[in-house]
Amino acid sequence: AAVSAGAMMKETIRVYARVKPLGRRQRAGIYSVDDDEKSVSSLEIIVPRDLADGFVNNKRESYKFKFQKIFDQEAKQDVVFDSIAKPVAECALAGYNGTIFAYGQTGSGKTFTITGGAERYSDRGIIPRTLSYIFHQLQKDSSKVYTTHVSYLEIYNECGYDLLDPRHEASRLEDLPKVTIMEDPDQIIHLKNLSLQQATNEEEALNLLFLGDTNRMIAETPMNQASTRSHCIFTIHISSKEPGSATIRHSKLHLVDLAGSERVAKTGVGGHLLTEAKYINLSLHYLEQVIIALAEKNRSHIPYRNSMMTSVLRDSLGGNCMTTMIATLSLDKRNIDESISTCRFAQRVALIKNEAVLNEEIDPRLMIAQLKKEIQELKDELALVTGKQKTAELSQEELLRLNELIERFLEDNDPESILDVGPDMRKIKYCFIHVKQLMNHSKISEKNLLSQHVSEEKDKQGIQAGKEELRKLKELLQQRDNEINILVNMLKKEKKKAQDALFQLHAVSGGSKVLEQSLSRNLEESRSPSSCVNLKEAKDFSFSVRRLPFLSRQTGGEMSLGCQEAFEVFKRDHADSITVEDNKQLLRQRFAEAKSLGEKVNELRNKINHLKGEITQRHIQKAALAVAGASEELNKLDPIEEKLRAQIEEEKKSYKTMFNRLKGLKVEIEHLQLLMEKAKVKLQKDFEVWWSEEATKLQQEKPDLVNTSNTAAVYPQFIKSSQRLSTNSSLETRRISHNEESTGNKSSITFSYPTSKSRTLPSSSSSVPLTGDSQIDADILAFIKARGNILQKKGKSLQ
Ligand code: ADP
Ligand code: MG
Q: Which of 105, 213, 792 minimizes the C-alpha distance to 551?
């Protein structure tokens, strides 16, 4: 439960479970969900009899776990978003940090939950829904000025990669900019080289998400299995400020798709605890260690530094953050041990307490301006009280006059006598100093001193009583002066920090204008005018392309005929192409809807204009009548005009609803288009993988085709379109000459342009598979035809 104390929220990490639909049978027997209690639900996992023996050493039959809420198989994405992500998004909007992370074995639905399914619009996950929600809220709130950025980080093998770098056409993970961690003296983590892309609306943010997802997909090779072994962190950065106010609020919302939590089963002595088995992913092991440490009382050292992921998520784990975990479960018989592990992990996470504080800071420039204003006001007030404007120093005459007064006062033996210098702090101060000097110099006798002391006390009292207010004002002035000094120092330091960061940036990236998070953080914090310019520049530089480059690329074209034909067959049988067709259908439908809506909107606008015209007409008529003498006509309420106005209001209302629906439709259409593009890229990539596999197989099965000493050379080569463009002519000639050769000399069927060789690893979106040798392509094709059903099978296994 949350304890809200002013600007702090103390709360344990909220832990939810989501059970993936299993389809077909499987349902009964393995688990049950108990939703009776209001605030918590419990999940019972029942170990089937036949598994219980060899499974765990204590042979329990069932395990019970508590969750904030359990989303069973039927739960839809909108429901999951409403109860899990919406509250966190609201906190982020209010200035608190938030994190939602999905944890579970591969295939349990982490990506589905965080990003969404690749097929249907309704399957979109937490990230697109959160973006949509946040931008809608921002639009509604005109009381503040908001700035939003997104970043997308992938961590694979302890290396961070920036998925949003628009300058790269990544074909491998290693092509993406490497992100490294830097810790500043205040132990705050900065991510160097992770770009923060500004997104001013939902559409821009979605484009960035898809850019990142596509990079993630393309960079994945069967070898690295990135989606299983890497962590992806999509972060929405929000800052807000009320106009005229000096306080800025910053918040970060991390949406995290963790690596698969599956462990290597320990094949030790029979009955060994499976939960002790090691994680495949070492950083999840460190995550678990951090969580164990956090759950222990009185533990001062938390081993965040052991892995990049725990460093990045440091605040989200026991720090300044509203954190939520979703345990994704694929609860069938085979996965029972993994599911239990996931639930156990979740129970530990549920013990962690976080303290989310409002991330507010003060813009020193604005603060100084405000304080200066306040000082001026105080000075004016002072002048008003004393009745005259003060100069800094007392004049010589004034000083002489004061000395006289003091002397007279000291000599006066009347106990009632007072030293009245008027309501002027400078004079009062001078008097005290002067008296002090007189005392120190022992110019007056002991006796005199005593009497003087007494009268001084009285004097003090008198002055204090009369000038209390004045003194307070003076003190306030002093205080403000100090504050200004401090702030000026802060500003200087801030400036220096920014300069240092800039210097480092130049030093590290060789002067290239990479938008570094550390830099932008500093800059954002200081909000100096130059920083705004820098941010903007960087943005323009790094993300001016609205449509992502891969979306406009053409497929085919340069494929050899055999290869092309194979691609057609592959496409036909590929499971995803069915989805593409479905989506195409849907898209057509949505387009038609949008078109007719657009027409209706236009119609309504015309109608409104027409009605307005009628009103004007009536005004003219009335004016004419008035001129003709019936002047009372002008003042009379015109029932017809009233009716027309009401009608306009009506039409305006429906215009507005139609317009909003059209806007919604636009977002959906965009999303569908992006989904389709993604499916296309994936199809091509799958084809390439399959094609090269087939080529390898073919080569192994028909070794006579090639010279064995040169086998490596006949692997299909993937050439980037850009490279092909630049080296086009020479490639063409090479290809031709080489075809001629190949009939006679089989040892040289290689087709690989030397300069491009090092960079011609699979780069799916832009590349086309090409053995470059029609003979080989034809052979492969013949081979495909002979084995007719391969594709069919392949298509199924891809589902
Ligand atoms: P993970 O990211 O944990 O490895 P995925 O999210 O990729 O798992 O899910 C594996 C498969 O199961 C995907 O095809 C996905 O679409 C499907 N899936 C997962 N969760 C659901 C769900 N709640 N409803 C429908 N399909 C789901
Ligand atoms: Mg996944």
A: 213
